[in-house]
Design goal:
coiled coil, 3 helices, rod-shaped, mainly alpha
Length: about 120
């Protein structure tokens, strides 16, 4: 039927394949199939491992960034705590040495100073 579609003669006789030759062709075909499937499995494994490495690298980078943010926040809180300790010490010193009105003036001056600092940091 295929010969008729391609326009070749229909009366041509097809020779039977020699048994030894048929066995050889089948063995070659099976060998090539085995090599091809092994190649595909190795290629799949390489692609999978590459994808896993990239995924792990992304996760590690995210962890590193999170750690840096936590360290930065910790440093900021430490600085703020030191600043508050200094203010508290100054207020305690004033309370010991002077009257309540002087302490109120100091607190007001420090609040004004902090407000100016926060306004400058916004710009």
């Amino acid at each position: 039927m295929q010969r008729r579609i391609y326009g070749r003669s229909n009366d041509t006789r097809i020779r039977p394949l020699n048994e030894d030759r048929a066995v050889q062709v089948a063995a070659d075909l099976l060998g090539e199939f085995f090599i091809f499937t092994e190649f595909l499995s190795q290629l799949t494994e390489i692609i999978f491992m590459s994808s896993m490495r990239r995924s792990e690298a992304r996760k590690e980078e995210m962890r590193r960034q999170e750690m840096e943010a936590i360290k930065k926040k910790n440093e900021e809180l430490t600085e703020e705590m030191e600043h508050l300790k200094l203010k508290m010490g100054a207020m305690e010193q004033i309370a010991r040495n002077s009257c309540f009105i002087d302490m109120f003036r100091l607190w007001h001056a420090q609040a004004y100073e902090d407000a100016q600092k926060s306004d400058k940091s916004k710009w």
